[in-house]
Every structure is written in structure tokens, then in C-alpha cells.
TrEMBL record:
One Pfam family it belongs to: Glyoxalase
InterPro entries to which the protein is assigned, alphabetical: Glyas_Bleomycin-R_OHBP_Dase (IPR029068), Glyas_Fos-R_dOase_dom (IPR004360), VOC_core (IPR037523), Xdiol_ring_cleave_dOase_1/2 (IPR000486)
Native organism taxonomy: Bacteria, Pseudomonadati, Pseudomonadota, Gammaproteobacteria, Cellvibrionales
CDD domains per the UniProt record, alphabetical: BphC1-RGP6_N_like (cd07252)
Similarity-based family: Belongs to the extradiol ring-cleavage dioxygenase family.
Chain ranges of the VOC domain: 5-121, 149-270
Named cofactor requirement(s): Fe(2+)
GO molecular function: dioxygenase activity; ferrous iron binding
Protein name per the record: VOC domain-containing protein
UniProt keyword annotations, A-Z: Aromatic hydrocarbons catabolism, Dioxygenase, Iron, Metal-binding, Oxidoreductase
Amino acid sequence: MAVAASGYLRIGATEVDAWMGFGTGVLGLMEAQRDDASGARYLRLDDHPFRLMIEPAEADGLIATGLEFPDEDAFRACCSALTAAGHDIAPGSEAEAKRRAVTAFATTQDPSGNVLELYWGRELDYTPLVSPQGIANFVTTYQQTGDLGFGHLVLPALEFDATTDFYTEIIGMGITDILYPPGMDGAKIHFMHANNPRQHSLALFNGPHPLGVVHIMVEVETMDEVGRAMDRAKAAGSHFLATLGRHINDNMCSVYLLAPGGIAVEFGCEGMLIDPETHVATVSTEGDLWGHEYNFPGMND
């Protein structure tokens, strides 16, 4: 029943063109040529038809997280477990599934109200990936183990314990690391892995966030690609939420940028890989080995 990966994100944007310009011009993602009656536009990182769906919206923020299951049996077992535990779950229509390029999906919410789209059977796009910024590959697979997902995301979870139980006991994730961020009294983050080697595919923060997501992460293969993205971000006038730094728990060397509308995007390399079958959860009281000096908008005004 274990979830295989964090597969895609649906992001609401008041300025879709600006988001797409950031996605292609700064992050180096490829725009997928897909028609959508609602005006959504799509960004590719690999052979999946899209990893980010950017949708016109009246407010900026995360709309839904797509979690991928390895096959129909695992998908249906999770849906049944959710129903048995008293969670509402709504099957998606055939037309809605086609829009997401999946065989079937169902929508539910975790106990903190985060919207999830559980799915199986992604239809792949075999058009070669051509990054407009010349990035050869994004880190979304690993050798013979297969899909690592688009990267990771951190969700707000005011109902922290119940939400953690939801992901570990029903969705099938495992806790990788528990972080008590320094300088943030009472703050706590649970980092959780799916059934793949990425150190975490999803994390929970025990506080609110106005955009419905603390940050999302995209990974590249080399430090040079991170550096070139930093140059592009500076040239584009993007806000640097955090300077270059390296995290302790997943070893990611990264920078944090704000996308149009305010969603934080971590762009990094060298993320840790684990064995999801044998990993033993750790506890961290420091977030970084070095760097990552934060500059929240307005803090220096």
C-alpha cells in the first residue's frame, strides 16, 4: 500500500505567465505543450507529462499534491483504508484523470486540510526533455530503483500528530528525520520518505502557511547547475529567500527562491539517498551545516 513518490503539484497562480517565465527562465524547466480548457500550463522535469501544473486562480498557493502509487492494487488498498478510517475520498472522473495523464485518481484531505490526489498509472511523455536553460537532467530517478518523484514539498500541519499518523499509517510513508529548528520555539518538522530512496518526499511543519505549502524542491545533478540558476535568478530579479547552504539531515546543497506569488522553491543538488526498507529515523536540532541565511520579504524594511 506504500506510496511510491510525490508525483506532481497543482499550483494556483494569479499571474500564470510570470510563473511560467520563472519556471522556464530561472529553474530551467521545460514547458509541456498540452491543451487545457481551464487555461492551465504545464512544466516538465523528465518523461512525465508534467510535474507542475500552473493554473489560473484568484489567489496564489498550492491547490493539490499528487501522490503516486505503484499499481492499481496499492491505490485501491489505500482508498479503502482511508474510507475505513473515516476520511472522505472522492473518485476522479475519466475526463479529470485524462487531464492529469493518469489511469485513475481520487481526492482526499489530510487532517490538516491539505488536498491530496492519489493516483496510479501515469502516462509518460517520450518527447525528449529539452531544458530552455541547457540543464541535462533533473534528479527524478535513481538507477534501477525507478521514480523518485518531482522532488519534495513541505506542508503546513496544524493537526500535527493526527496528520503524521495519516501519512505513516494510511498513506504508507516512513519518518526519516525529526527536526527541531533552532531559534523557532515549539517548531517541529517531520521529514517522511515514500517507497523510494529520496531522503524525504514530503515533510510536515507544525504551523500554518498562507500559501498552503512551506516550500517545494527541485533537484539538479551538479553544483554548477545550482550556480547557474543563481545567476539567472539574480538577472531576473528573483527574491532569494535563503542564501546558498547545505542541510544537515538530507545533505542538500541549495538556494531558496521565491516564485511569482510567493511560493518558496528550493533548488539544489547532492540530496541524500536512503534505503526506505531499513532506514532508521534520526533527530536533528540544527538545520544546516553552513549557509542558508534567510531573508523573508519585509523583514528588513
